[in-house]
Amino acid sequence: MDTKKVGGNAKGMTQFHQLLIKNLKTYRKQRGYSQMKLAHLCSVSPNYIGEIEMGRKFPSADTMDKIIFALNLKPYQLFFSEEDISGVDQILQNHYEQAKSNVASYVAEALRIYQATGASGEQIQTDIADIMKNMELQSRNKSKDS
């Protein structure tokens, strides 16, 4: 297990580390897990979970993945305050709702056009396949630009 020892008190810890400790304890308790139960789910010793929660050790990336999975969290949830998380969740929800609305409008407009032109079901399927390919290409290009 690759861990890094850190200062054992709040003065020696970063805000990031303090949030990790606070959130780990909070989510573990919300799930009704003891340190022993979480340790078992993560294949680490109960003492190790205790050391993390006391700020004496910082988990490796592998252990962090196991903790996130065991607690059924989104990765960012361990590193943000509740206020930040609710803000992020609201932003994501807003984007989702806007995207859903845009797609619904686009589909309604496309169907109106197809009905007006008398396009066949086969033509509609071909056009949808072309749109999906273009969307995939645009997504790949955006990923390359990032």
Automatic annotation (TrEMBL):
Pfam families: HTH_3
InterPro entries: Cro/C1-type_HTH, Lambda_DNA-bd_dom_sf, TransReg_Diox_bact_type
CC terms in the record's Gene Ontology section: cytosol
Keywords annotated in UniProt: DNA-binding
HTH cro/C1-type domain mapped to chain residues: 24-78
CDD domains hit by this protein: HTH_XRE
GO molecular function, one term: DNA-binding transcription factor activity
Matching Gene3D superfamilies: lambda repressor-like DNA-binding domains (1.10.260.40)
Listed name of the protein: Helix-turn-helix transcriptional regulator
